[in-house]
């Protein structure tokens, strides 16, 4: 009983801290090596990436190499909380079915004895992969180190070695040595490699730039690559080009004229990923965000839900840029700790620049479609105020739904108050049960038969004197009857005009996670939920409307999803 008292104390700590860890590197040594117990896994996902058991967090340096996709990830091989961190390693030929290998990097040297933390991979000339990662020594000092494959002829790159000239990059004077981590994928420009390292000083988030001719000897640039006040620690910086005219991905070293650049940082204080679009001033080696692109908490996000510490990579086989993100745990239940796993990765997504050039768009990789089973279709179905219709004939706890809603009239749209800048707060105040003019309408996912439990994913439309304002919500407040767990309402605004009066929504439902893509991937929200009734065959799926205006389900396709081969 003493162990479980400690576990519930841990859960209480998370709950008091708004249901999240204060930092991904906060240590709870009493739980780090707690053994798993075999019980029925009601919330274990079927097609999201996760190891057989135990804690994972940041995806490290995903890459495509010689026909095989690799994902590395922060992994605790001994327990279901953060600690004992190594670089887990799995491989795949299709980004969906995965085989676990032995860890690629484990703490073993003086420079990483207290942690082999996040980093990236880079493919060097002559097709040689290299890992850059953060090591933590016994004094908590963070340095940047490298590892290389022991045997390049091994198609799976199972073993990695740390050469004796580590560390490569030490924190210099003026750099916060305990907040200096997560080196980015490198890029090549004018005879030198360049890499970013995240940091923080006096609450200013910083991306430091380092240059090298040989990838071994690195020199810090005189000025930060980019920084912003009052944003705190910048974890997992990611920097890459996007095409102005195509969905195709670009190599990180591509510097053509018709591109913008993306700088993504993971704000440790907020536990969300933010990005800006801007210009890379190559002569000055500095990044300048566009005027409409805001740094920090008011800026753009990849995902407005449980999504953190993401990393992209260029896939040369299909010429696309792929985004991986950690579905960061909003809470733990006793069930989670007993079964000995916590944390999953979001479905890999392609990412490209929207035609409006103001934001990115995302969509699940096409390989996910290979898991689709039986399809159920619905079209031209009216949803009057207060109505909900069940989508039957699929496994509602394990499904892929793609729906287009048509709004016959926008005359009943509610006025938008200019003070409603915070989408998440607006969703909390105007949830799925709060009747409106146009909306709320959408899906009730992971719902119990009598709607005691459900996670609502829905739109609500407002109007100003100049335009319509569209809100997308993923509201988990009714997701579980269990008390004391974090059940937030997540939300983001959708930058779309309603000239055709249509709104599309795709939701991936996988037992304890709902990933949603609004308006073709303009706004994405991931929710991690823990239903007690709406599990396995007892889960249901409904389309609903609680607005005055009748909504038409113009087209709906729903598939039962097969289980992926997972580690």
TrEMBL record:
The cross-references to Pfam families, in alphabetical order and at most eight, read: Glyco_hydro_32C, Glyco_hydro_32N
Q: What is the lineage of its organism?
A: Eukaryota, Viridiplantae, Streptophyta, Embryophyta, Tracheophyta
Which residues constitute the signal peptide according to the record?
A: 1-23
Question: What are the protein's UniProt keywords?
Answer: Glycosidase, Hydrolase, Signal
Q: Which InterPro entries match?
A: ConA-like_dom_sf, Fructan_Metab_Enzymes, Glyco_hydro_32, Glyco_hydro_32_AS, Glyco_hydro_32_C, Glyco_hydro_32_N, Glyco_hydro_beta-prop_sf
Q: Which CDD domains match?
A: GH32_Fruct1-like
- Origin species: Gossypium barbadense (Sea Island cotton)
Q: Which residues form the Glycosyl hydrolase family 32 N-terminal domain?
A: 48-364
Q: Which residues form a coiled coil?
A: none
Q: Name one GO biological process term.
A: carbohydrate metabolic process
PROSITE patterns, per database record: GLYCOSYL_HYDROL_F32 (PS00609)
Provide the Glycosyl hydrolase family 32 C-terminal domain boundaries. 367-560
- PANTHER family in the cross-refs: BETA-FRUCTOFURANOSIDASE, INSOLUBLE ISOENZYME CWINV1-RELATED
**Hydrolase is among the record's keywords:** yes
The record's comment on protein family reads: Belongs to the glycosyl hydrolase 32 family.
Gene3D superfamilies reported in the protein's UniProt record: Exo-inulinase, domain 1, Glycosyl hydrolase domain, family 43
What this protein is called in its record is: Beta-fructofuranosidase, insoluble isoenzyme 1-like
Q: Name one GO molecular function term.
A: hydrolase activity, hydrolyzing O-glycosyl compounds
């Amino acid at each position: 009983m003493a162990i479980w008292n400690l576990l519930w104390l841990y859960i209480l700590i998370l709950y008091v801290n708004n249901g999240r860890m204060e930092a991904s590197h906060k240590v709870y040594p009493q739980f780090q090596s707690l053994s798993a117990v075999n019980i029925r896994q009601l919330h274990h996902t079927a097609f999201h990436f996760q190891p057989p058991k135990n804690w994972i967090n940041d995806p490290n340096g995903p890459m495509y190499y010689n026909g095989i996709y690799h994902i590395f990830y922060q992994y605790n091989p001994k327990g279901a909380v953060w600690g004992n961190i190594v670089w887990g390693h799995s491989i795949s030929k299709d980004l969906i079915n995965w085989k676990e290998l032995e860890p690629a990097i484990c703490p073993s040297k003086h420079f990483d004895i207290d942690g082999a933390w996040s980093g990236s991979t880079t493919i060097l000339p002559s097709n040689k992969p290299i890992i850059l990662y953060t090591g933590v020594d016994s004094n908590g000092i963070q340095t940047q180190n490298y590892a290389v494959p022991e045997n390049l002829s091994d198609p799976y790159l199972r073993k990695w070695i740390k050469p004796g000239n580590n560390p490569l990059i030490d924190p210099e004077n003026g750099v916060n040595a305990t907040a200096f981590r997560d080196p980015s994928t490198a890029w090549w420009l004018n005879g030198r490699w360049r890499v970013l390292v995240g940091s923080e000083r006096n609450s200013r988030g910083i991306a430091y730039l380092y240059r090298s001719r040989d990838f071994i000897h690195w020199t810090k640039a005189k000025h930060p690559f980019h920084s912003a006040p009052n944003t705190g620690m910048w974890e997992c910086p990611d920097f890459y080009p996007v095409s102005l005219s195509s969905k195709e991905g670009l190599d990180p070293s591509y510097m053509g004229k018709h591109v913008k650049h993306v700088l993504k940082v993971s704000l440790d204080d907020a536990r969300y990923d933010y990005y800006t679009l801007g210009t890379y001033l190559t002569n000055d080696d500095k990044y300048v965000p566009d005027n409409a692109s805001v740094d920090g908490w008011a800026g753009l996000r990849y995902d407005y839900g449980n999504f953190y510490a993401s990393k992209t990579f260029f896939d040369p086989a299909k010429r696309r840029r792929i985004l991986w993100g950690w579905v960061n745990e909003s809470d733990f239940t006793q069930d989670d700790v007993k079964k000995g796993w916590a944390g999953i990765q979001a479905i890999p997504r392609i990412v490209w620049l929207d035609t409006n050039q103001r934001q990115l768009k995302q969509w699940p990789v096409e390989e996910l479609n290979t898991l689709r089973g039986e399809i159920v279709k619905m079209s031209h179905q009216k949803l009057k105020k207060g109505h909900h219709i069940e989508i039957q004939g699929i496994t509602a706890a394990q499904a892929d739904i793609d729906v287009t809603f048509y709004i016959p009239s926008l005359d009943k749209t509610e006025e938008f108050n200019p003070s409603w800048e915070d989408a998440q707060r607006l969703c909390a105040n105007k949830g799925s049960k709060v009747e409106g003019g146009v909306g709320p309408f959408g899906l009730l996912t992971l719902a119990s038969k009598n709607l005691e439990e459900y996670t609502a994913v829905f739109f609500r439309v407002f109007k100003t004197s100049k335009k319509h304002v569209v809100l997308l919500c993923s509201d988990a407040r009714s997701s579980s009857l269990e008390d004391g767990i974090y059940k937030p309402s997540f939300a983001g605004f959708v930058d779309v005009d309603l000239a055709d009066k249509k709104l599309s929504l795709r939701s991936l439902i996988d037992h304890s996670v709902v990933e949603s893509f609004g308006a073709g991937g303009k706004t994405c929200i991931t929710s991690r939920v823990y239903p007690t009734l709406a599990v396995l065959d007892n889960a249901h799926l409904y389309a609903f409307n609680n607005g005055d205006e009748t909504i038409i389900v113009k087209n709906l396709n729903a598939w039962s999803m097969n289980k992926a081969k997972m580690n």
